[in-house]
Amino acid sequence: MNDQDFLLLALKEAQNYAHVTTAVKVGAVITINDHVCATGFHQGPGTDHAEVMAIKNANGQLDHATLYVTLEPCNHYGKTPPCTKAILDAGIKKVVYAYKDFNPDVKGSGAEYLKANGVEVVHQPLDEINDFYLPYDYGYKHQMPLLELKQARFAESHIIGLPDKRLMITDDKVEAWTMSKRIKADALMTSTQTILIDNPLFTIRQGNETLKTPPLVIFGQTQIPGHYRIHKQEREIIYIQKDLESNLSKLYQKGYRRIWVECGYKLGHYLHQNNLLRNIYIIESTEPHGSLKSGIKSLDVTSMRPESVETVGLCDVIRYKISD
Fold first, then answer.
1. First and final CA of the chain: distance in angstroms?
2. From CA 272, how far away is CA 77, in angstroms rounded?
3. Would you call 51 a catalytic residue per the annotation?
């Protein structure tokens, strides 16, 4: 195994804490001679940071150890002492980290402090970890959760649906792709209209197995009756009837960092026009649907340049980056 492999193990550790939290999720792995001897992850505000937890779990001499950590070790006193002190006290001589601390007050200081005290420090960025910390970085800048919107449409008509009728546009591979996006989010978001028309489950599934039922944010004036499928699983439902921006800000303050949005035109258009989205994913069916001449149009992204395009099953997934 190499540095990248050990950092990906540290990422899995960070993902072990599955609850919504105001604390930054961090994972750590300690190796000796390329063998894992301890792991750790941050378990919420006021608890040991990932590095400290891993050091305690190692329970031995670490002067020949390497510490792999997803985020640059902190170098300041907060609710707990700085991790840099614990690393030096443990005698660790090498630290490999993936993401620079996004807090502007401490960015870079942890790495520099360790270097100044004789520790070999390696910054090894990874796409997977960059994506994991993107909502935290975004949140520091905007004090809002990072919202990503998915809409599916027919390529030749740009129609996403018909009034009061559900249309199935995507296939099993796109369904799996959607689940891979949902599972990264702290909550899912939709509108009452989408639920009343589509009656979705809004769970995270693998085949017929439900892996997770994340909190669901519903925007609209109508309470969803109990016989709808969103109520089949025990879950937290957050209704927002007005003042969407201020309520999203409140969710951020509670620890919601990434929200995955699946909705129709009205809510999607509102979020887009009010600069509340970071990414828009257009799922475009490449299969013809000649009988569909009119209906609800998708978001107008004609003036925007796609950030990326990938083929998933029978669809093209087109990503538009809206803001940094």
1. 34
2. 39
3. yes
Distance (Å, whole) CA 38 – CA 10: 11
Distance CA 284, CA 152 (A): 6
The tokens of 25 are what?
């999720």
Q: Shortest CA distance to 93 belongs to which of 26, 48, 9, 32?
A: 32
Instruction: Please name the amino acid found at residue 210.
Output: T
Q: How many residues appear in the chain?
A: 324
Locus of tokens 């559900």: 166
Q: Which two tokens stand for residue 130?
A: 């960059």
Q: Which helix (H) or strand (E) holds 192?
A: helix 192-198
DSSP 240: E
3-14 and 50-58 helices, crossing angle to 10°: 110
pLDDT digits (tens, 9 = 90+) for 138-156: 999 999 999 999 988 877 6
Task: For residue 286, give the 3-state DSSP assignment.
Answer: coil
**Catalytic choice (51, 72, 148, 284):** 51
Q: Find the helix or strand (DSSP H, E) in which 49 lies.
A: none
CA distance 254 to 170: 34
- The two three-digit tokens of residue 302, written as one number: 């004609």
Rounded Cα gap, residues 280 and 318, in angstroms: 8
Which residues does residue 282 pair with via DSSP β-bridges, in sequence order?
151, 318
Query: Which amino acid is it at 193?
Result: Q
Collect all residues with Cβ–Cβ distance below 8 Å to 208 and sequence separation of at least 6. Answer: none
Q: Where are the alpha helices (DSSP H) in 143-191?
A: 172-182
Residues 99/130, Cβ–Cβ less than 8 Å: yes
Q: For residues 253 and 17, is the Cβ–Cβ distance under 8 A?
A: no
- Reported as a pLDDT band with limits 50, 70 and 90, residue 210 is confident
Contact 121, 115 (CB under 8 A): yes
Angle at 11 between CA 70 and CA 64, to 5 degrees: 60
pLDDT class for 287, splitting at 50, 70, 90? Answer: low
Whether residue 62 contacts residue 92, with contact meaning beta carbons closer than 8 Å, is answered with yes
